[in-house]
Automatic annotation (TrEMBL):
Enzyme class label: isomerase
Coiled-coil residue windows: none
Known role: Catalyzes the stereoinversion of LL-2,6-diaminopimelate (L,L-DAP) to meso-diaminopimelate (meso-DAP), a precursor of L-lysine and an essential component of the bacterial peptidoglycan.
Main subcellular location of this protein, as a coarse class: cytoplasm
Name used for this protein in its record: Diaminopimelate epimerase
Enzyme Commission number(s) from the entry: 5.1.1.7
Family that this chain belongs to: Belongs to the diaminopimelate epimerase family.
Annotated site location: Could be important to modulate the pK values of the two catalytic cysteine residues: 176, 225
GO cellular component: cytosol
Length: 293
């Protein structure tokens, strides 16, 4: 199986070109095998680039644990780069079919003609609690007390990072919970992340983001991704953070988000408007996988 390793701000996936390669019969099992950073290729999951009847290409995305996800913001930017750079559809604007519908992309190329940066119309955020989904009995979960419905956490962690114990839930086609604190570096993400991801109030699990505000237009965030654990970046999560900031009046309509792997530019003008995300996409190397397929 021919593959290409790509990443968006260090959020790295193994990509298979379904236009030219045989698609794995069991992509969930292949995702687990190739994602292993010691015995596989190493990555946060597997992404298939497939033909589409309604767009330039279609993306299917599998987490490192084999679970299939509806969307991946960093991953879909890399899909757009691959589709352009490898000649599947070499044009400045693309349409990619995803688990949350067809998204549109504006591509910026470098001197070598290869895509360096991608601006994505991520669509409107989903705010209805039942559609995120969460079982919290509210129309929307905005600054909802964490202790009211949340699971049991280790003692002292909230005080250590200066947690604001209110959560906001947003779906960007996949589910996110956003919490604010004074110092994201002090959040024990490896402990608290999986507790929140698997909390009973989130029936399809959830992506977890802790955010430290610097100004109305700048934040730092850390992420525990559903099915993959701690990652260097989460594009849909950054979009959810931008939406949560506007909904709770913490940040404004344009936002610079610092993630461990780099920066993303976000825009959300409010209700009824799509979220726009701009960031890089990088191809690392191409090879052949001789394991299971």
């Amino acid at each position: 199986m021919r593959f290409t390793k790509m990443h968006g701000l260090g959020n790295d996936y193994i990509y298979v070109n379904g236009f030219a390669e045989r698609v794995p019969a069991d992509p969930a099992a292949v995702a687990v095998a190739v994602s292993d950073r010691h015995f596989g290729i190493g990555g946060d999951g597997l992404i298939l680039i497939l033909p589409s009847e309604v767009a330039d290409a279609r993306m299917r995305m599998f987490n490192a644990d084999g679970s299939e996800s509806e969307m991946c913001g960093n991953g879909v930017r890399c899909v757009a780069k691959y589709v352009h750079d490898h000649g599947i559809a070499k044009k400045p604007e693309l349409r990619i079919e995803t688990g949350r519908g067809v998204l549109t992309f504006q591509l910026t190329t470098g001197p070598d003609g290869q895509v360096a940066k991608v601006r994505v119309n991520m669509g409107e955020p989903i705010l209805d609690a039942a559609k995120i989904p969460t079982t919290i009995a509210a129309g929307r979960v905005i600054d909802h007390p964490l202790s009211a419905d949340g699971p049991e956490f280790p003692r002292g962690w909230a005080e250590a990072c200066g947690l604001d114990p209110r959560m906001t839930c947003v779906s960007m086609g996949n589910p996110h919970v956003v919490l604010y604190c004074n110092d994201v570096a002090k959040v024990p993400l490896e402990t608290v992340g999986p507790i929140l991801e698997n909390a009973a109030i989130f029936p399809r699990r959830i992506n977890v983001h802790f955010v430290q505000k610097h100004s109305d237009g700048e934040v730092t965030m850390r992420t525990w991704e559903r099915g993959s654990g701690i990652t260097l970046a989460c594009g849909t999560g950054a979009c959810a953070v931008a939406v949560a900031g506007v909904l709770t009046a913490r940040t404004g309509p344009t936002l610079l988000a610092h993630l461990p792997g780099g920066d993303l530019d976000l825009e959300w003008a409010g209700e009824g408007r799509p979220v726009y995300m701009t960031g890089p996409a990088t191809e690392v190397f191409t090879g052949d996988w001789n394991g299971m397929a």
